[in-house]
Specification:
Layout: E1 3-6, E2 9-12, E3 33-34, E4 47-53, E5 70-76, E6 82-83, H1 87-90, H2 109-124, E7 136-142, E8 179-188, E9 191-199, E10 215-223, E11 226-236, E12 244-251, E13 277-288, E14 293-303, E15 319-326, E16 346-348, E17 354-356, E18 368-372, E19 395-401, E20 425-429, H3 431-435, E21 455-462, E22 470-482
Parallel strand pairs: 4-7, 15-19
Antiparallel strand pairs: 1-2, 3-22, 4-5, 5-6, 7-12, 8-9, 9-10, 10-11, 11-22, 12-21, 13-20, 13-22, 14-15, 14-21, 16-17, 18-19
């Protein structure tokens, strides 16, 4: 999803950060309200969807006999469960019409997937106030990039082929979509359970074992009328696919979700805006995924132009903005007194004081893994690293954080190991408060952008592992809480 490059070496950044050891027994503010359609994942009638992407945040080419890489498992609770999406819907692929599909998109692999997501959303839609919602989104992404193809745009402009070496690719076909298997949710006694799983090795059979092949799996399970859905994730890399990403996302129910330039569907019926929201979630990491696993306790994504205006779909001027915290204890701080280009120009304290990165006595270098600026910005402060220009449809800006005492006021991890393997916790994070004080680039003299977040997600990005790595984690009780009514 989000990746960054410096001095011809690819550095990754992306999703999810922040945590706070918080007992969730405290009462909410009376004015608070959940921004998601399924607060805390408590609803028995689940709505969940699946999307897979290549390096460019596009489809490129469908996997044989798999259809377009979009699917959904949506049902109302009854005995038996009343499913809203048929498997024939999940297997729809280019050339096959469905209601609402534009004739011009029926044979365009990328646009077909866009329209299929909207169609699945219409089947899963739940009426609500102030607007309907559709589903939680499971996102899978392949980090391979065939640089000889010229397929990915460069900061929104048409890309051109270049020599391989900066990105993994085993050769022609390395950007393929995965085989996808769906176990529709079933009710067994008092327990509901379903899953999506698969592999990128198209000639393999996961039934023969997982040695030397990639694998992904998300299983959801819940007891009727009891607690939260528990989403169990597993992600495995392989020699051919050393860079994979798997996240559970709360996306906007309409408009552009983080990283995309077209209409999407999701579960955020109200878009949270800094500083007035928190995120509550329970996370239990079983396996971390190795030293290259950039596990995001929380990632937030949005889009606004460098002049502060909201995005409008113009990929030449739109900029995806991400903030994420990495909780892997093996992830170093690339930001340092000797690596100022990896740091934001300044840090803002909770009481709104600015500490500039050249203030070596006071700047919290170890609180930042990496910062990269948008490649289309015209007035960047030097020295600077610019983000990878190929992995989003438009330019991107990324602020990656690490556990540090300076984040304590926001409820985020304060030291290495907080929330990591064998340290399961329920967190309540003042994501709105922190995100209101992070540095994001804007053109000099331009009005401040409204920081409205269209995606909030959690998971890992295993970045070009040297050997097969496995990450496993469970997530539950996910909620986005507005601390003040939106005006």
């Amino acid at each position: 999803m989000a990746m960054a490059m410096k001095n011809n070496q690819l550095y990754v950044l992306f999703l999810l950060g922040n945590a706070f050891v918080f007992s969730v027994s405290g009462a909410r503010d009376e004015s608070s309200v959940s921004a998601v359609g399924d607060p805390g994942m408590q609803r028995d009638g689940l709505r969940v969807a699946f999307e897979a992407w290549n390096f460019c945040n596009e489809v490129g080419q469908e996997a044989p006999d798999m259809g377009s890489p979009r699917a959904a498992d949506c049902f109302d609770f009854s005995k038996p469960l009343t499913h809203k999406v048929k498997e024939v819907d999940n297997r729809l692929g280019v050339g096959k019409p469905f209601p609402g599909l534009k004739p011009s998109d029926v044979n365009n692999t990328d646009l077909y997937a866009v329209q299929k997501e909207l169609y699945l959303g219409s089947l899963c839609k739940v009426s609500d106030t102030p607007r309907p919602w559709q589903f939680w989104m499971i996102m899978l992404k392949n980090g391979n990039y065939d640089t000889k193809s010229g397929l990915c745009p460069e900061n929104g402009k048409k890309g051109t082929p270049f020599s391989p070496g900066r990105f993994p690719c085993f050769g022609e076909g390395c950007m393929n979509q995965p085989k996808l298997y769906h176990q529709p949710t079933e009710l067994d006694g008092n327990t509901m359970r379903g899953s999506f799983s698969g592999t990128y090795e198209l000639g393999s059979d996961v039934g023969d074992g997982l040695d030397d092949i990639s694998y992904f799996e998300v299983v959801w399970e819940k007891k009727v009328n009891v607690g939260s859905w528990v989403f169990s994730h597993k992600l495995k890399t392989s020699k051919k696919y050393p860079w994979l990403m798997l996240y559970l996302r709360a996306d906007a129910t309409q408009g552009f979700s983080g990283g995309y330039h077209y209409d999407t569907r999701g579960i955020l019926k109200i878009l949270p805006e800094s500083p007035n929201f928190k995120v509550r979630v329970s996370l239990d990491i079983k396996q971390g995924g190795g030293p290259k696993s950039q596990f995001y306790l929380l990632d937030i994504g949005s889009c606004w132009k460098n002049n502060g205006a909201p995005c409008d779909g113009d990929v030449l001027t739109d900029v995806t903005r991400y903030s994420e915290m990495i909780i892997n204890t093996e992830t170093p701080a690339w930001c340092s007194p000797n690596g100022l280009d990896n740091c934001p120009p300044y840090h803002i304290t909770p009481d709104n004081r600015k500490i500039y990165r050249n203030d070596t006595d006071n700047f919290p270098y170890s609180a930042y893994h990496y910062y990269c600026a948008p490649g289309n910005a015209q007035h960047l402060e030097q020295p600077v690293s610019t983000c990878d220009p190929y992995s989003n449809p438009q330019a991107q800006e990324i602020v990656q954080l690490l556990p540090h005492p300076i984040w304590a006021e926001y409820g985020y991890p304060t030291k290495k190991g907080d929330g990591w393997v064998r340290d399961a916790r329920t967190w309540e994070l003042d994501v709105g408060g922190l995100s209101s004080r992070l540095y994001f680039y804007q053109d000099p003299g331009s009005p401040s952008a409204r920081r409205i977040w269209t995606s909030i997600d959690m998971g890992t990005e295993i970045f070009v592992s040297n050997k097969d790595e496995v990450a496993e984690w469970t997530l539950s009780n996910f909620d986005v809480i507005l601390t003040k009514p939106n005006s």
